[in-house]
Amino acid sequence: MTIHPLRYEPAYETPEPDEAETTGGLVEALRGIAETTYRDYGYPVRSVHAKSHGLLRGELQVLEGLPAAYAQGLFAQLGRYPVVLRFSTNPGDILDDSVSVPRGLAVKVVGVEGARLPGSEAGREQDFVLVNAPTFAAPTAKAFLGNLKLLAKTTDRAPGLKKVLSAALRGTEAALEAVGGKSATLTQMGGHPNTHILGDNFYSGTPFLFGASMAKFSVAPVSPALLALKDAKVKVSGRPDALREEVLAFFAGNTAEWELRVQLCTDIGEMPIEDSTVEWPETMSPYVAVARITAGPQPSWNEERSRAVDLGMAFNPWQGLAAHRPLGSINRTRRAAYRMSADFREARSGCPMHHPRGEPDLPI
Protein backbone atom coordinates (compact mmCIF):
# COMPACT_ATOMS: atom_id res chain seq x y z
CA MET A 1 0.00 0.00 0.00
CA THR A 2 1.30 3.45 -0.94
CA ILE A 3 0.69 5.88 1.91
CA HIS A 4 0.33 9.62 1.28
CA PRO A 5 0.39 11.26 4.72
CA LEU A 6 -1.68 14.36 5.30
CA ARG A 7 0.33 17.43 6.19
CA TYR A 8 -0.42 18.92 9.60
CA GLU A 9 -2.43 22.13 9.67
CA PRO A 10 -3.13 24.14 12.86
CA ALA A 11 -6.82 24.19 11.88
CA TYR A 12 -6.99 20.44 12.60
CA GLU A 13 -6.70 21.28 16.30
CA THR A 14 -9.75 23.03 17.76
CA PRO A 15 -9.46 23.85 21.47
CA GLU A 16 -12.64 23.55 23.52
CA PRO A 17 -14.05 26.91 24.72
CA ASP A 18 -13.39 26.10 28.39
CA GLU A 19 -10.23 24.06 27.91
CA ALA A 20 -8.25 26.04 30.50
CA GLU A 21 -10.95 25.35 33.10
CA THR A 22 -10.93 21.67 32.15
CA THR A 23 -7.15 21.57 32.57
CA GLY A 24 -7.48 23.01 36.07
CA GLY A 25 -10.14 20.46 36.95
CA LEU A 26 -8.00 17.64 35.65
CA VAL A 27 -5.02 18.72 37.75
CA GLU A 28 -7.24 19.09 40.83
CA ALA A 29 -8.77 15.62 40.42
CA LEU A 30 -5.42 13.95 39.91
CA ARG A 31 -3.90 15.80 42.86
CA GLY A 32 -6.79 14.60 45.01
CA ILE A 33 -6.04 10.98 44.05
CA ALA A 34 -2.33 11.48 44.77
CA GLU A 35 -3.00 13.05 48.18
CA THR A 36 -5.39 10.23 49.15
CA THR A 37 -2.93 7.48 48.28
CA TYR A 38 -0.04 9.36 49.91
CA ARG A 39 -1.96 9.40 53.18
CA ASP A 40 -2.59 5.67 52.84
CA TYR A 41 0.86 4.47 51.82
CA GLY A 42 3.17 7.05 53.37
CA TYR A 43 4.98 7.48 50.06
CA PRO A 44 3.88 9.10 46.78
CA VAL A 45 2.61 7.16 43.77
CA ARG A 46 1.30 8.20 40.37
CA SER A 47 -2.26 9.53 40.20
CA VAL A 48 -2.95 6.97 37.47
CA HIS A 49 -1.00 3.83 36.60
CA ALA A 50 0.30 3.65 40.16
CA LYS A 51 1.12 -0.06 40.18
CA SER A 52 4.04 -1.30 38.10
CA HIS A 53 4.36 -4.92 36.97
CA GLY A 54 7.62 -4.78 35.02
CA LEU A 55 10.52 -2.31 35.04
CA LEU A 56 12.90 -3.16 32.24
CA ARG A 57 16.14 -1.98 30.69
CA GLY A 58 16.34 -2.52 26.95
CA GLU A 59 17.51 -1.14 23.62
CA LEU A 60 15.69 0.52 20.74
CA GLN A 61 17.10 0.20 17.23
CA VAL A 62 15.75 2.35 14.41
CA LEU A 63 15.10 0.17 11.37
CA GLU A 64 17.10 0.52 8.19
CA GLY A 65 15.61 1.62 4.87
CA LEU A 66 12.50 3.40 6.12
CA PRO A 67 10.46 5.26 3.46
CA ALA A 68 10.78 9.04 3.72
CA ALA A 69 7.30 9.43 5.22
CA TYR A 70 8.32 7.22 8.16
CA ALA A 71 11.90 8.45 8.57
CA GLN A 72 10.94 11.42 10.76
CA GLY A 73 12.07 12.78 14.13
CA LEU A 74 13.59 10.04 16.26
CA PHE A 75 13.40 7.69 13.27
CA ALA A 76 15.06 10.00 10.72
CA GLN A 77 18.36 8.14 10.87
CA LEU A 78 19.75 4.82 12.01
CA GLY A 79 20.60 4.63 15.68
CA ARG A 80 20.59 2.51 18.82
CA TYR A 81 19.29 3.93 22.09
CA PRO A 82 18.97 2.59 25.63
CA VAL A 83 15.37 2.46 26.83
CA VAL A 84 13.46 2.01 30.08
CA LEU A 85 10.06 0.27 29.91
CA ARG A 86 7.40 0.41 32.62
CA PHE A 87 4.40 -1.94 32.48
CA SER A 88 1.50 -0.88 34.69
CA THR A 89 -2.25 -0.96 35.34
CA ASN A 90 -4.33 2.19 35.28
CA PRO A 91 -5.84 2.90 38.75
CA GLY A 92 -4.25 5.49 41.03
CA ASP A 93 -4.38 3.10 43.99
CA ILE A 94 -2.37 -0.11 44.25
CA LEU A 95 -4.87 -2.96 43.96
CA ASP A 96 -4.71 -6.74 43.99
CA ASP A 97 -4.45 -8.10 40.47
CA SER A 98 -7.80 -9.85 40.95
CA VAL A 99 -9.21 -6.38 40.18
CA SER A 100 -8.48 -6.64 36.46
CA VAL A 101 -8.20 -3.29 34.71
CA PRO A 102 -6.62 -1.88 31.52
CA ARG A 103 -2.85 -1.89 31.22
CA GLY A 104 -0.22 0.63 30.22
CA LEU A 105 3.30 0.69 28.84
CA ALA A 106 5.60 3.70 29.16
CA VAL A 107 8.81 3.81 27.11
CA LYS A 108 11.67 6.22 27.72
CA VAL A 109 14.23 6.45 24.90
CA VAL A 110 17.47 8.01 26.13
CA GLY A 111 20.16 9.99 24.32
CA VAL A 112 17.89 11.51 21.66
CA GLU A 113 19.26 14.61 19.92
CA GLY A 114 17.22 17.28 18.12
CA ALA A 115 14.95 20.29 18.59
CA ARG A 116 13.00 19.80 21.81
CA LEU A 117 9.47 20.44 22.98
CA PRO A 118 9.07 23.50 25.25
CA GLY A 119 9.86 22.60 28.84
CA SER A 120 12.07 19.64 27.92
CA GLU A 121 15.00 21.54 26.42
CA ALA A 122 17.49 20.27 29.00
CA GLY A 123 16.67 16.61 28.39
CA ARG A 124 17.67 13.97 25.90
CA GLU A 125 14.56 11.80 26.32
CA GLN A 126 11.74 10.76 24.02
CA ASP A 127 8.85 9.31 26.00
CA PHE A 128 5.95 7.22 24.70
CA VAL A 129 2.95 6.63 26.99
CA LEU A 130 0.69 3.84 25.73
CA VAL A 131 -2.35 1.76 26.75
CA ASN A 132 -3.55 -1.63 25.57
CA ALA A 133 -6.42 -0.30 23.45
CA PRO A 134 -6.22 1.50 20.09
CA THR A 135 -8.44 4.38 21.24
CA PHE A 136 -8.72 6.60 24.30
CA ALA A 137 -11.56 6.10 26.80
CA ALA A 138 -13.00 9.62 26.28
CA PRO A 139 -13.53 11.69 23.11
CA THR A 140 -12.64 15.09 24.58
CA ALA A 141 -10.79 16.61 27.50
CA LYS A 142 -14.05 17.54 29.21
CA ALA A 143 -15.35 13.97 28.93
CA PHE A 144 -12.00 12.70 30.22
CA LEU A 145 -12.36 14.95 33.26
CA GLY A 146 -15.81 13.48 33.95
CA ASN A 147 -14.37 9.95 33.85
CA LEU A 148 -11.50 10.97 36.09
CA LYS A 149 -13.79 12.48 38.73
CA LEU A 150 -15.64 9.16 38.89
CA LEU A 151 -12.31 7.33 39.27
CA ALA A 152 -11.25 9.73 42.02
CA LYS A 153 -14.38 8.91 44.03
CA THR A 154 -13.52 5.20 44.00
CA THR A 155 -9.87 5.64 45.06
CA ASP A 156 -9.21 3.99 48.43
CA ARG A 157 -12.80 2.72 48.64
CA ALA A 158 -13.83 -0.88 49.43
CA PRO A 159 -10.99 -2.91 47.85
CA GLY A 160 -12.81 -6.15 48.71
CA LEU A 161 -15.93 -4.99 46.90
CA LYS A 162 -13.78 -4.03 43.89
CA LYS A 163 -12.62 -7.66 43.64
CA VAL A 164 -16.20 -8.97 43.63
CA LEU A 165 -17.32 -6.33 41.14
CA SER A 166 -14.34 -7.04 38.88
CA ALA A 167 -15.20 -10.76 38.72
CA ALA A 168 -18.79 -9.94 37.77
CA LEU A 169 -17.74 -7.41 35.15
CA ARG A 170 -15.27 -9.86 33.59
CA GLY A 171 -18.13 -12.28 33.09
CA THR A 172 -20.32 -9.62 31.49
CA GLU A 173 -17.50 -8.44 29.22
CA ALA A 174 -16.68 -12.01 28.19
CA ALA A 175 -20.33 -12.56 27.26
CA LEU A 176 -20.32 -9.38 25.17
CA GLU A 177 -17.13 -10.35 23.36
CA ALA A 178 -18.52 -13.83 22.65
CA VAL A 179 -21.15 -12.20 20.41
CA GLY A 180 -18.73 -9.71 18.86
CA GLY A 181 -19.30 -6.83 21.28
CA LYS A 182 -17.04 -4.90 23.62
CA SER A 183 -17.56 -2.31 26.34
CA ALA A 184 -14.79 0.16 27.14
CA THR A 185 -16.73 1.21 30.25
CA LEU A 186 -16.91 -2.32 31.66
CA THR A 187 -13.23 -2.86 30.92
CA GLN A 188 -12.24 0.38 32.65
CA MET A 189 -14.30 -0.51 35.75
CA GLY A 190 -12.67 -3.92 36.26
CA GLY A 191 -13.90 -6.13 33.45
CA HIS A 192 -10.59 -6.51 31.67
CA PRO A 193 -9.74 -10.18 31.00
CA ASN A 194 -7.15 -11.78 33.31
CA THR A 195 -4.50 -12.25 30.64
CA HIS A 196 -0.71 -11.97 30.55
CA ILE A 197 0.38 -8.34 30.27
CA LEU A 198 3.34 -9.24 28.03
CA GLY A 199 0.98 -10.57 25.36
CA ASP A 200 -0.74 -7.20 24.87
CA ASN A 201 -0.38 -4.66 22.06
CA PHE A 202 -0.08 -1.08 23.27
CA TYR A 203 -1.18 2.15 21.55
CA SER A 204 -0.79 5.89 22.03
CA GLY A 205 -4.56 6.30 21.49
CA THR A 206 -4.01 10.01 20.91
CA PRO A 207 -2.28 11.59 17.86
CA PHE A 208 1.12 13.26 17.58
CA LEU A 209 3.09 15.25 15.07
CA PHE A 210 5.30 13.06 12.95
CA GLY A 211 7.60 15.52 11.25
CA ALA A 212 5.31 17.55 8.98
CA SER A 213 2.49 15.00 9.21
CA MET A 214 0.46 13.33 12.02
CA ALA A 215 0.51 9.85 13.46
CA LYS A 216 -0.37 7.44 16.23
CA PHE A 217 2.12 5.01 17.80
CA SER A 218 1.97 1.37 18.79
CA VAL A 219 4.28 -1.14 20.48
CA ALA A 220 3.56 -4.75 19.52
CA PRO A 221 5.21 -8.02 20.59
CA VAL A 222 7.02 -9.87 17.78
CA SER A 223 9.30 -12.46 19.38
CA PRO A 224 7.81 -15.98 19.55
CA ALA A 225 7.96 -16.17 23.35
CA LEU A 226 5.87 -12.98 23.62
CA LEU A 227 3.43 -13.93 20.86
CA ALA A 228 2.74 -17.17 22.74
CA LEU A 229 1.39 -15.06 25.62
CA LYS A 230 -1.36 -13.34 23.62
CA ASP A 231 -4.64 -13.86 25.50
CA ALA A 232 -2.88 -16.33 27.84
CA LYS A 233 -4.91 -16.59 31.04
CA VAL A 234 -3.27 -15.72 34.35
CA LYS A 235 -4.48 -17.18 37.66
CA VAL A 236 -4.94 -14.27 40.05
CA SER A 237 -6.76 -15.92 42.97
CA GLY A 238 -4.57 -15.63 46.06
CA ARG A 239 -1.90 -13.82 44.02
CA PRO A 240 -2.17 -10.04 44.64
CA ASP A 241 0.88 -9.42 42.42
CA ALA A 242 0.19 -12.10 39.80
CA LEU A 243 1.14 -9.97 36.78
CA ARG A 244 4.41 -8.90 38.38
CA GLU A 245 5.21 -12.54 39.19
CA GLU A 246 4.46 -13.62 35.62
CA VAL A 247 6.74 -10.92 34.18
CA LEU A 248 9.51 -11.90 36.60
CA ALA A 249 9.18 -15.54 35.58
CA PHE A 250 9.36 -14.64 31.88
CA PHE A 251 12.48 -12.47 32.14
CA ALA A 252 14.26 -14.99 34.33
CA GLY A 253 15.39 -16.66 31.11
CA ASN A 254 13.76 -15.08 28.05
CA THR A 255 14.55 -12.25 25.66
CA ALA A 256 11.64 -10.12 24.42
CA GLU A 257 11.30 -8.17 21.20
CA TRP A 258 8.68 -5.61 20.24
CA GLU A 259 8.16 -3.43 17.18
CA LEU A 260 7.51 0.27 17.61
CA ARG A 261 5.02 1.08 14.85
CA VAL A 262 3.59 4.24 13.32
CA GLN A 263 0.17 4.84 11.73
CA LEU A 264 0.17 7.95 9.54
CA CYS A 265 -2.89 10.16 9.15
CA THR A 266 -4.10 10.22 5.54
CA ASP A 267 -7.66 11.60 5.88
CA ILE A 268 -8.68 14.11 8.55
CA GLY A 269 -12.34 13.12 8.25
CA GLU A 270 -11.71 9.45 8.98
CA MET A 271 -8.74 10.12 11.29
CA PRO A 272 -9.68 13.10 13.47
CA ILE A 273 -7.28 14.81 15.83
CA GLU A 274 -9.75 16.02 18.46
CA ASP A 275 -11.77 12.81 19.04
CA SER A 276 -9.50 10.11 20.42
CA THR A 277 -12.29 7.54 20.64
CA VAL A 278 -12.21 7.20 16.83
CA GLU A 279 -10.03 4.31 15.71
CA TRP A 280 -8.07 5.26 12.62
CA PRO A 281 -8.82 2.68 9.89
CA GLU A 282 -5.85 0.42 9.22
CA THR A 283 -7.33 -0.26 5.79
CA MET A 284 -6.45 3.35 4.93
CA SER A 285 -3.13 3.48 6.76
CA PRO A 286 -1.68 0.43 8.54
CA TYR A 287 0.74 0.48 11.44
CA VAL A 288 4.27 0.25 10.01
CA ALA A 289 7.33 -0.78 12.04
CA VAL A 290 9.97 1.95 12.42
CA ALA A 291 12.06 0.51 15.28
CA ARG A 292 12.61 -2.64 17.31
CA ILE A 293 12.86 -2.81 21.10
CA THR A 294 14.78 -5.67 22.73
CA ALA A 295 15.02 -6.57 26.42
CA GLY A 296 17.06 -9.52 27.64
CA PRO A 297 16.83 -11.63 30.81
CA GLN A 298 16.88 -9.47 33.94
CA PRO A 299 15.19 -9.01 37.33
CA SER A 300 12.13 -7.23 35.94
CA TRP A 301 10.90 -5.94 39.31
CA ASN A 302 12.44 -5.39 42.73
CA GLU A 303 12.38 -2.68 45.38
CA GLU A 304 15.54 -1.05 44.07
CA ARG A 305 14.13 -0.78 40.56
CA SER A 306 10.84 0.49 41.92
CA ARG A 307 12.59 3.28 43.82
CA ALA A 308 14.59 4.20 40.71
CA VAL A 309 11.69 4.17 38.22
CA ASP A 310 8.37 4.37 40.11
CA LEU A 311 9.62 7.10 42.45
CA GLY A 312 12.49 8.61 40.48
CA MET A 313 11.33 8.79 36.87
CA ALA A 314 8.55 10.61 35.05
CA PHE A 315 7.18 9.37 31.72
CA ASN A 316 5.58 12.21 29.82
CA PRO A 317 4.89 12.52 26.05
CA TRP A 318 5.73 16.22 26.39
CA GLN A 319 9.33 15.14 27.17
CA GLY A 320 10.65 14.69 23.68
CA LEU A 321 11.31 16.08 20.24
CA ALA A 322 9.35 18.94 18.70
CA ALA A 323 8.90 16.61 15.70
CA HIS A 324 6.64 14.44 17.90
CA ARG A 325 4.54 17.12 19.62
CA PRO A 326 1.37 15.69 21.21
CA LEU A 327 -1.84 16.82 19.46
CA GLY A 328 -5.49 17.26 20.47
CA SER A 329 -7.36 18.36 23.59
CA ILE A 330 -6.61 15.21 25.60
CA ASN A 331 -2.88 15.75 25.17
CA ARG A 332 -3.04 19.51 25.70
CA THR A 333 -4.86 19.22 29.03
CA ARG A 334 -2.77 16.30 30.26
CA ARG A 335 0.40 18.33 29.93
CA ALA A 336 -0.12 20.18 33.21
CA ALA A 337 -1.30 16.97 34.89
CA TYR A 338 1.92 15.13 34.02
CA ARG A 339 3.94 17.99 35.46
CA MET A 340 1.87 18.08 38.66
CA SER A 341 2.22 14.32 39.20
CA ALA A 342 6.01 14.43 38.84
CA ASP A 343 6.31 17.51 41.09
CA PHE A 344 4.08 15.87 43.73
CA ARG A 345 6.22 12.73 43.88
CA GLU A 346 9.45 14.69 43.81
CA ALA A 347 8.42 16.94 46.71
CA ARG A 348 7.28 14.06 48.94
CA SER A 349 9.90 11.46 48.13
CA GLY A 350 12.87 13.71 48.87
CA CYS A 351 14.37 12.55 45.59
CA PRO A 352 14.50 14.68 42.44
CA MET A 353 13.14 13.26 39.19
CA HIS A 354 15.89 11.53 37.23
CA HIS A 355 16.23 12.64 33.60
CA PRO A 356 18.94 10.47 32.01
CA ARG A 357 20.81 12.08 29.12
CA GLY A 358 22.70 8.95 28.12
CA GLU A 359 23.42 5.35 28.99
CA PRO A 360 25.68 6.12 31.99
CA ASP A 361 22.79 7.99 33.64
CA LEU A 362 20.33 5.08 33.57
CA PRO A 363 19.48 3.92 37.11
CA ILE A 364 18.75 0.29 36.12
Question: What do you see in this structure?
Answer:
- The chain is of the alpha+beta class and 364 residues long.
- The protein has one domain: Catalase core domain (Catalase HpII,  Chain A, domain 1), CATH 2.40.180.
- It contains eight helices and nine strands.
- It has helices at residues 19-41, 141-154, 159-178, 184-189, 224-227, 242-251, 303-311, 328-349, and strands at residues 51-62, 80-89, 103-110, 125-131, 202-203, 208-210, 213-221, 256-264, 288-295.
- Strands 1, 2, 3, 4, 5, 6, 7, 8 and 9 form a nine-stranded antiparallel sheet that branches.
- Helix 1 packs parallel to helix 2 and helix 1 (19-41) packs parallel to helix 8 (328-349).
- The longest helix has 23 residues, at 19-41.
- Residues 160-183 and 186-190 have low confidence and may be disordered.
CATH topology: Catalase HpII,  Chain A, domain 1
The beta-strand count equals 9
Number of domains: 1
Helix- and strand-based class? Answer: alpha+beta
Q: Please, how many helices?
A: 8
**Major sheet size, sense and barrel closure:** 9 strands, antiparallel
State the CATH superfamily name.
Catalase core domain
Backbone shape: globular
What Rg do the Cα atoms give? Answer: 19 Å
CATH architectural name:
Beta Barrel
Order of helices and strands: HEEEEHHHEEEHHEEHH
Tell me the fraction of residues in β-strands, as a range: 15-25%
Mean pLDDT: 90
